[in-house]
Task: inverse folding
């Protein structure tokens, strides 16, 4: 509790580590997470430090492990992640682990390279077989598919590309065949025509199935082409164009016999490559499976080893270079564990001279350490999102455990929705040890990490839902309504009483669509509902007006209490740091400014609730008008809420006006008076003091020993506030900015708390609309088809309730609750 209310008490310790035991000692310290190191080599670059070589070795190991993880993931091999975190490897095993990883990397790269080469050869041979199959149809094409030319009558019965026909033309014919991607065919054809001036014949056809590109591995559509040309110069140009368009060129057989031999050889080689490739993949998978068993633990070990060497680089050597000196911040409660860790590290290394520690006094501000558990971690993260508090300040996370889910529930008040959220969070809490939840996707993992926040948010929403009497937009009559309708009839009263009352009869009930209950009639209002809002308001036409008034005033009251509580927490900080002048000159004027204006507003709200009843409600004054008149000083007399209200309000305004200059000038003038050597009261502090960067009063330590409680404490405490450079202008400007921000913030933040009312109203109305558009329609259908229609209506209602009212509205209320904190 003490650690949660304030951060841990810290001390600065100096560690003396023998060179041979430093690694083991820091490993033991890191496993326990006891200390935070200070960098004693800030003026030395990272490349000139003692253990930079070891850090580079760790980075090399990280690179190898990253390559292994990449290959394992590529092979779809699951990585076994253990629950335990292995310690950093001993120095004796580091070289052995490095050799194993380097050998494994070389082997994997060689096997992978051979596999890729075999795969590329296989794809090329497959392309070659498809090319031979398709180009066979080009050469043996029948004459009926070819154009006939009158100028060559002797060739009309021969194929255009037959060798004997070309030889009778006396030309030297050449062929280029291969594959080209589908998107390049049109440009390729145009380029051939323009460059070769029509001295080529291009024939192409699309493959039936897409093939994998041997270079990129992408599966695309291919076209097989065959180019016939005359002359060596044309052939040279054709080959250049094919290279330009990245065509896959394969040798074209000259005869049918040669084509058949090539086809048979290709089939044999493809079968052999399939066999070799399968064996290579099996061997590669075996190697990766064996590596996957230990890669997770080795990644953690290398990270820890790298962290140890980073910490060793922060240490300094003594004059003999045989001992490392480190300075660490450590909680005072963990000093014994720190000594035990040093002894354990020395014992593991087998050193004859143990490492030891020494506590040293310091003037610096220690870091803030707040211990958390799985319950408080989520709330602490919300507070830390705005900034980590200074050392030994009051930790707001303790109070956020209550205020955050409560303010959320005020905006999300619905018994049914809160109960669903509570059940979901309870399911996560009960199964929190399940490994799939902690390793799930990002959104689900976010819900899992905030499971205890969701649990309290749902629980508080159940409470506020009972107060609002809202359960899926419907009221629940648990204790019976406090209103009696039968008392409005004339038969329930004596004849003498009927003349003074406006009662109902059969004619009034039959001819009026809206009936009004009069609580001043005896027996109509029998008392307030035991818990929350009376369920009869769910039937009233002025229900929204009544709830708006109630929730708006409740939001203002909660907001002012919340802001006042924050100022009171600041008083605890001033008392702890023995700066009582901040209480008198800052905190008390802030409370007076807040309470004299908005505290009086709360008083008027509560006073009106208690003083006026149903009989006197018509003559009750408006709180808004009375609050405005507090600042305008009207000339005409008003009734007011209570006798002497005008004098009380003027007194409160005078106190408010006097607190503003004290808030602006009190602290700067006091510090100036203190700087000039005057005696002071209540500012002493023993040990180290809180030092803030760019603070208006930087303080320093007087000496290594604590100041004793006594008469001289007052004199020494005055000197604490004096600093080396006292800048009155800076202090005054800082205080003026803080005061203006506070005064304006009191007004703007009070208005900002009205979002409690607005979000609660929006949630209730949206829930009501969803019920009216779905459930009411489904329940009004006749019994014949009602059951069949009701099931999908209920399913749709449940889906929309979860996604709109629980997730979207819940996220909106969650963000607004964060804003109010």
Result:
């Amino acid at each position: 509790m003490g650690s949660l209310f304030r951060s841990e008490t810290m001390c600065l310790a100096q560690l003396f580590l023998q060179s041979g035991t430093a690694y083991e000692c820091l490993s033991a310290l890191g496993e326990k997470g006891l200390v935070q190191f200070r960098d004693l080599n800030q003026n030395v670059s990272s490349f000139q430090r003692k253990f930079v070589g070891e850090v580079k070795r760790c980075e090399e190991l990280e690179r190898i492990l990253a390559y292994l993880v990449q290959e394992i993931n590529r092979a779809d091999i699951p990585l076994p992640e253990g629950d335990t975190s292995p310690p950093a490897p001993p120095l004796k095993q580091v070289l052995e682990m490095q050799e194993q990883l380097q050998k494994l990397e070389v082997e994997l790269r060689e096997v992978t390279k051979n596999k890729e080469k075999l795969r590329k050869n296989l794809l090329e041979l497959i392309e070659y077989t498809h090319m031979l199959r398709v180009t066979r149809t080009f050469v043996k094409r029948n004459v009926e598919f070819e154009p006939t030319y009158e100028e060559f009558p002797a060739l009309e019965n021969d194929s255009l590309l037959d060798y004997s026909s070309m030889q009778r033309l006396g030309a030297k014919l050449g062929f280029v065949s291969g594959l080209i991607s589908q998107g390049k065919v049109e440009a390729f054809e145009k380029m051939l025509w323009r460059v070769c001036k029509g001295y080529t014949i291009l024939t192409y056809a699309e493959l039936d199935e897409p093939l994998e590109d041997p270079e990129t591995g992408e599966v695309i559509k291919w076209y097989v082409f065959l180019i016939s040309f005359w002359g060596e110069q044309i052939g040279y140009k054709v080959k250049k164009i094919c290279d330009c368009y990245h065509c896959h060129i394969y040798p074209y057989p000259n005869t049918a016999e040669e084509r058949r031999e090539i086809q048979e050889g290709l089939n044999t080689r493809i079968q052999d490559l399939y066999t070799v490739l399968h064996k290579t993949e099996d061997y590669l998978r075996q190697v990766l499976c064996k590596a996957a068993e230990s890669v997770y633990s080795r990644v953690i070990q290398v990270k820890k080893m790298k962290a140890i060497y980073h910490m060793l680089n922060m240490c300094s050597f003594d004059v003999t270079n045989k001992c490392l000196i480190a300075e660490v911040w450590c909680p005072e409660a963990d000093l014994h564990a720190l000594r035990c860790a040093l002894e354990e590290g020395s014992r593991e290394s087998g050193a004859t001279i143990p490492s030891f520690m020494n506590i040293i006094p310091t003037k610096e501000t220690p870091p803030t350490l707040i211990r958390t558990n799985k319950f408080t971690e989520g709330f602490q993260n919300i507070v830390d999102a705005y900034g980590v508090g200074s050392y030994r300040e009051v930790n707001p996370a303790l109070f956020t455990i209550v205020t955050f889910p409560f303010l959320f529930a005020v905006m999300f008040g619905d018994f049914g929705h809160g109960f669903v959220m509570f059940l979901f969070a309870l399911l996560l809490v009960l199964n929190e040890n399940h490994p799939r939840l902690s390793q799930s996707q990002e959104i689900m993992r976010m819900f899992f990490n905030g499971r205890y926040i969701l649990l309290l948010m749902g629980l508080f929403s159940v409470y506020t839902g009972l107060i609002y009497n809202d359960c899926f937009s419907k009221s629940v009559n648990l204790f019976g309504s406090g209103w009696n309708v039968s008392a409005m009839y004339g038969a329930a009263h004596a004849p003498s009483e009927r003349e003074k009352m406006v009662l109902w009869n059969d004619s009034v009930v039959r001819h009026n669509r809206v009936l009004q209950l009069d609580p001043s009639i005896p027996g109509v209002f029998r008392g307030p509902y035991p818990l929350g809002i009376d369920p009869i308001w769910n039937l009233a036409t002025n229900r929204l007006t009544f709830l708006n008034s109630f929730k708006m005033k409740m939001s203002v009251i909660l907001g002012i209490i919340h802001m006042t509580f924050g100022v009171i927490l600041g008083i605890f900080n001033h008392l702890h740091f023995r700066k009582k002048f901040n209480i008198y000159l800052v905190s008390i004027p802030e409370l007076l400014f807040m309470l004299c204006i908005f505290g009086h507003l709360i008083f008027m709200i509560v006073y009106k609730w208690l003083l006026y009843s149903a009989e006197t409600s018509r003559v009750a004054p408006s709180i808004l008008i009375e609050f405005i008149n507090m600042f305008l000083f009207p000339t005409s007399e008003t009734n007011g809420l209570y006798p002497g209200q005008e004098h009380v309000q003027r007194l409160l305004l005078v106190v408010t006006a006097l607190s503003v200059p004290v808030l602006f000038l009190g602290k700067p003038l006091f510090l100036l008076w203190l700087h000039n050597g005057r005696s002071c009261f209540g500012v002493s502090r023993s040990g180290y003091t809180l030092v803030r960067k760019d603070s208006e009063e930087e303080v320093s330590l007087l000496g290594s020993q604590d100041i004793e409680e006594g008469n001289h404490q007052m004199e020494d405490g005055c000197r604490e506030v004096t600093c080396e450079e006292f800048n009155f202008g800076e202090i005054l400007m800082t205080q003026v900015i803080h005061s203006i921000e506070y005064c304006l913030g009191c007004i703007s933040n009070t208005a900002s708390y009205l979002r409690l009312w607005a979000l609660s109203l929006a949630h209730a109305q949206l829930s009501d609309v969803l019920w009216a558009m779905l459930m009411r329609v489904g329940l009004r259908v006749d019994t014949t088809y009602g059951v069949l229609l009701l099931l999908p209506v209920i399913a749709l209602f449940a889906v929309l309730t979860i996604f709109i009212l629980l997730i979207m509205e819940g996220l909106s209320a969650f963000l607004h609750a964060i804003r109010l904190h």
